[in-house]
Amino acid sequence: MRNFVCDRVINFRDTDAAGVVYFANALAICHEAYEASLAASGIVLKSFFSGDVIAVPIASAKIDFFKPMFCGDRIKILLDSSLLSSDSFQVAYQIFFARDAGEDKKAIAIAQTKHVCIDSSTRKKVPLSPELLKWIEFN
Amino acid sequence: MRNFVCDRVINFRDTDAAGVVYFANALAICHEAYEASLAASGIVLKSFFSGDVIAVPIASAKIDFFKPMFCGDRIKILLDSSLLSSDSFQVAYQIFFARDAGEDKKAIAIAQTKHVCIDSSTRKKVPLSPELLKWIEFN
Amino acid sequence: MRNFVCDRVINFRDTDAAGVVYFANALAICHEAYEASLAASGIVLKSFFSGDVIAVPIASAKIDFFKPMFCGDRIKILLDSSLLSSDSFQVAYQIFFARDAGEDKKAIAIAQTKHVCIDSSTRKKVPLSPELLKWIEFN
Amino acid sequence: MRNFVCDRVINFRDTDAAGVVYFANALAICHEAYEASLAASGIVLKSFFSGDVIAVPIASAKIDFFKPMFCGDRIKILLDSSLLSSDSFQVAYQIFFARDAGEDKKAIAIAQTKHVCIDSSTRKKVPLSPELLKWIEFN
User: Fold this and answer.
1) C119 given a catalytic annotation
2) C-beta separation of A109 from A64 below 8 A
3) Which of D7, D16, D100, D119 does the annotation list as catalytic?
4) Residuewise pLDDT in 10s, chain A (139 residues)
5) Any CB–CB contact under 8 A between A73 and chain D?
6) What span, in angstroms and rounded, lies between the C-alpha atoms of D108 and D94?
7) Which alpha helices (DSSP H) does chain D contain, by range?
8) Rounded CA separation C61/B46 (Å)
9) Using CA atoms, how far apart are residues C71 and B118, in angstroms rounded to an integer?
C-alpha cells in the first residue's frame, strides 16, 4: 500500500553517551514523520498541536530496535496510519537506512503510536475531524 | 514485592505545545528512574553507560498513558526489574502523582523496557554481569 | 549573598555521543534550577509556564564550559536572580561538582538567562508581577 | 560573504508548554545546521562526533531571541564560521522565517558557538585538523 516516506539524518542531539540514538529519541524521530505527513495533507501543525479545541494525544507507544543508529546516519521513515474507531487511530512506523534499497532491506526499528481524539477542555473522547479522516485514508 | 521508588518533578523541558509532557519524554523519565536504581545498587553510571566493554541497549520499549502530566507536577516512579534470560532483562515502570496515596491511587502511565547485554565491539549477546544480576534480584 | 542551590545528577539523556553532556542540555539543566527556585518561592509552575495571561520568555541565554560532565556526575547549581528593569530580570547560574567543596571549588560551567515579562496575547512588555519581584528579592 | 543555509521545520518536540520553541532547543537547532555544514564539506559525522582521537567541544554558546517560533514554522538557518586561533573557531547563526525574503527580513534569533579542538584522552588543546580548516574557509 501507499506509505508516507520521510528522510532524516541522525543528529548529534539524538545520540547518547553509548554513541548511538537514545531510545526515546527514536520515538521522537517517528513523531517528526507523523508531523511531516500531517503537514503534507494540508493540516496546519501550529493549531493542530496547540490543542485549542480538540487534541489528539498519544494513548500508547511502542518501539522495537534491531540495529543501532549513529550520528550522521541517513534514514528513511515509512509511515502507515489506520483507523481504530470513530475517535482513535494508530500509526505504524518502519525505520530503514537510506543506503539500503530494494527487496532485501531490513528495518532498523519498528514503532507504533495510538492516538485518541479528545475535547481539550473536558478531555472526553470526540469523533476524529474530517481532515484527520482524510489524512488516514491517504497514508 | 519490593519496588524501587523515584521522586521527580515535571520540568518545563519535558512539556510540549499541547501543555503536557511530550510522550517520548515520559519514557526518558522512566529511564531516569532506572539510572537512579542502578546507582543505588552501587553501579557506576559513567562506565556502565559508556558501553566500553559491554553495553545493555534497549531492545524494545512501550508506554501507556492514562492521564496527562503538567509542568510542576510531582510524580513517583515505581520500578520493578525481572530476568528474561541469561543475557536479557525487563524493567516495568508505574508513574503516579505524588499527591495520590493509599490504596486507591491509579497510575498516570505504565511503561516497560527490555534490555539485552552485548559485547560492545562484536555486538553479540553476552551473559549479564554479576552486578546486574544482583541489581535485578533486589529491584 | 544568598543563592538558591539545586542538586542534580547527570542523566543518560543529557549526554551525547562524545560521552559528555550535550551543550544545549546544560542550559536546560540550569532552567530546571530556575523552576525549582520559583516553586520554592510558592509560584505554581503549571500556570506560570502555560503563559495564559502573562509570559516570561527568555530573551537571551549564554553559557561557558570549563569541564565536561559525565552520566552519573552529581552536580550543584547555584542560582542568583537580579532585576534589570521593571519588566525584565536576569538569572546567573554556576554549576559545580557536588564532590568539590570549600574555598577551592571551581565551576564546571557558568550561565546566564535574561527574561522579559510580556502580555501573552499582545506580546507587549508588561511589569513583572509581585510574586516575581518577591522571588527576585530572595534569590 | 558565503553562508551555509539550512532549511528546517519546527517540530512538536522542539516546543514547550508556553506553545513556542523551548529556548535551549533553539541552540540544538543551530547545532543541526553546523552538522549539516560539516557533512556538506565531506566530514564524516559519526567519527567526528564520537571524539575518538580529537574532539571539538563547545567552550561557550549564546543566543538572542527576537520572535517566537511555533510548531510547523519553516525556518532558514544561516551559518558563518571563522577561525579564532590555531586550535579554536566560532560559528555564527542567524535564524529566519522561510516565508520572509528579500532585503527586509529580520532574524528570529541569532546565536554563536565557540569550539576548541582537544586531544580526547589528555583533553589538551591541539591544532585544528586540515579538514576543519578547509570547512572554515568555505563557510
Assistant:
1) no
2) yes
3) D16
4) 468 999 999 999 999 999 999 999 999 999 999 999 999 999 999 999 987 889 999 999 999 999 999 999 999 999 999 999 999 999 999 999 998 765 567 999 999 999 999 998 898 999 999 999 999 998 8
5) yes
6) 8
7) 23-40, 45-50, 130-138
8) 28
9) 20
Grid coordinates in use for D100? 520572509
What is the 8-class DSSP label of residue A101? Answer: -
Q: Kindly report the backbone phi and psi dihedral angles of residue C95, in degrees, each rounded to the nearest multiple of 5, phi listed first.
A: -105, 130
- Say which residue the cell 509532557 belongs to: B21
The predicted-structure confidence for B81-132, as pLDDT tens digits, reads as follows 999 999 999 999 999 999 876 556 799 999 999 999 999 889 899 999 999 9
- For residue B69, the SS3 value is coil
Contact between residue A32 and residue A8 where contact means Cβ atoms under 8 Å apart: yes
Helix (H, G, I), strand (E, B) or coil at D46: helix
Q: Does D110 touch chain C (CB under 8 A)?
A: no
Q: How many CA atoms lie within 13 A of B23 on its CB side?
A: 27
Residue A67: alpha-carbon gap to chain centroid: 19
SS3 B41: coil
CA distance B24 to chain A (A): 5
The Cα–Cα gap between C59 and D109 comes to 9
Rounded to two decimals, the ipTM of the complex is: 0.94
Question: Which residue, among A11, A14, A15, A16, would best test binding to C if mutated, counting the most C CBs under 10 Å from its CB?
Answer: A16
Residue C7: burial class (beta carbons within 10 Å; 0-12, 13-18, 19+): exposed
Which candidate from B19, B20, B60 shows the least CB-CB separation from A65? B60
> Helical H runs in A18-114?
23-40, 45-50
Q: Check: CB of residue B100 under 8 Å from CB of residue B45.
A: no
Residues of C in contact with A19 (CB under 8 A): 17, 19
Please provide the size of chain A in residues: 139
The domain defined by A4-138 carries CATH number 3.30.70.20: no
User: Which of D76, D63, D56, D59 shows the shortest CA–CA distance to D112?
Assistant: D63
Helix (H, G, I), strand (E, B) or coil at A97: strand
pTM to 2 decimal places? 0.96
- Per domain, the residue ranges of chain C are 4-138
- Cell output for A88: 482513535
Q: Which residue has the cell 487511530?
A: A89
- Contact status, residue D90 vs residue D116, Cβ threshold 8 Å: no
Answer whether B16 touches D (CB < 8 Å): yes
